[in-house]
Design brief:
The chain is of the alpha/beta class. It has 15 helices and 19 strands. It folds into 2 domains: about 1-175, 3-Layer(aba) Sandwich (Rossmann fold); about 185-405, CoaB-like (Rossmann fold, 3-Layer(aba) Sandwich).
């Protein structure tokens, strides 16, 4: 693989000659682009020696190649890796700035972007940095680290750039499984449904759809065609998916059923409301007309996942493979969470359930992280997380993609 390594001015830049050496040993071609600050921390000669290529860092300089330097390099790369990725370069990439050679190349580069952040803990935790990282991840960037450990300033915390060995292992692992779902179609549901009470009010829940969108991105990364049936989201729909909007539980059921036969795998992450009014008031219900108490009558919404499981069982079909999500309140008790997951797995007649305990910090609604148990009908149990929702989604799909129901079955036409 042709890798463009971008080196920015973090103290971990001194590790990049070792990173280049390991990447080349793994069989990759490597070209290096640096910021001026990076060359205060790592020798240009060292990088050129281990890469066997000129190190590029000047926007306006005599050309090394015949074409336009930054465009040619951007077109050459099959993968762009920035290590270390400082808070400064992350901010520039999030905003689309191109004020030096490195950011100019990256702005023109269509290849997948990987970031190995390296900075002080307080810089990593700053809301601006977290927002910039989230912006880049939403656009498809992938993160390696940062790790927790001793920092250059002598303190200990999260922000340390991952070691070169770990970075190469992450790239190799991704490359090895990159297209395991090529030729498959994955249907993902995401977001919070809304059940209207009247013209201006509705019943809903706090889900932002981050987990479902992360699963959709992970499926794209694995080479799948992705249909995203989504309700109301707090994040952007990722590029490259076929998006279908469904506001309510009934609308989502219709959308899922209309696309089910195209799918090899259905992953139901949407937070579908359990109850809805039997009918919706045509206008706004006035407080004066209701009085001090508004007594609501609610009925059950359709159970989409259970319906899919029942339909599959009745027809004797083996597909689509069905994976459900269960937000539970187990009070931090893993045994209780596992019991609840197995009960739901049986009721829904699906192949796997990812259960998370929303009472555990880092596993609730609207956050950037998740953790829980992936429980298969054949008895396998895989703890996933803690990690970002993208990391958990990637791990979940890797486990599901290795299941016989996907591996052994031929792709749908």
């Amino acid at each position: 693989m042709r890798i463009l390594l971008g080196v920015s001015g973090g103290i971990a830049a001194y590790k990049t000659p070792d990173l280049v050496r390991r990447l080349k040993r793994a069989g990759h071609e490597v070209r290096v682009a640096c910021t001026h600050s990076a060359l205060e921390l790592v020798s240009r000669t060292a990088l050129e020696t281990v890469s066997g290529e000129p190190v590029l860092f000047e926007t306006f300089t005599p050309r090394v190649h015949a074409g336009v330097e930054h465009i040619d390099l951007a077109s050459w790369a099959e993968l762009a890796l920035v290590a270390p990725a400082t808070a400064n370069v992350i901010a520039k990439l999030a905003c689309g700035l191109a004020d030096d050679f490195l950011t100019t190349v990256l702005l023109a580069c269509p290849a997948p972007l990987w970031l190995a952040p390296g900075m002080n803990t307080r810089m990593w935790d700053h809301p601006a940095t977290r927002a910039n990282v989230a912006c880049l991840v939403e656009r498809g960037a992938r993160l390696i680290g940062p790790d927790e450990g001793e920092l250059a300033c002598g303190t200990t915390g999260v922000g340390r750039m991952s070691e070169p060995e770990r970075i190469v292992e992450a790239l190799q692992a991704h490359h090895a499984r990159d297209l395991v779902l090529r030729g498959r179609t994955v249907l993902v549901t995401a977001g919070a449904t809304r059940e209207p009470l009247d013209a201006v009010r509705f019943l809903s829940n706090p889900s932002t759809g981050r987990m479902g969108v992360a699963v959709a991105r992970a499926a794209l990364d694995l080479g799948a065609r992705v249909i995203l049936v989504h309700a109301h989201l707090g994040v952007k729909v990722p590029a490259g998916v076929e998006a279908v909007f469904a506001s309510s539980a009934v609308a989502m059921q219709g959308a899922v059923l209309s696309h089910r036969d195209r799918a090899d795998l259905v992953v139901m992450t949407a937070a579908v409301g359990d109850f809805m009014p039997p009918e919706t008031a045509p206008g706004k219900v006035k407080k004066e007309d209701v009085g001090e108490t508004w007594n609501l009558t609610l009925v059950r919404t359709p159970d989409i996942l259970a319906g899919l499981g029942q339909d599959r069982e009745r027809s004797g079909a083996r597909r689509p493979l069905l994976v459900g999500f269960a937000a539970e309140t187990a009070g931090g008790d893993q045994d209780r969470l596992l019991t609840l997951a197995r009960q739901k797995l049986s009721r829904k007649r699906c192949d796997a359930i990812f259960a998370n305990d929303v009472q555990v910090p880092g596993a609730g609604f609207a956050g950037d992280t998740n953790l829980g148990l992936l429980v298969f009908a054949d008895g396998r149990v895989h703890p996933l997380g803690p990690g970002t929702k993208d990391q958990v989604a990637s791990a979940l799909l890797s486990e599901v993609a290795s299941s016989p129901g996907i591996v052994a079955a031929p792709p749908l036409p």
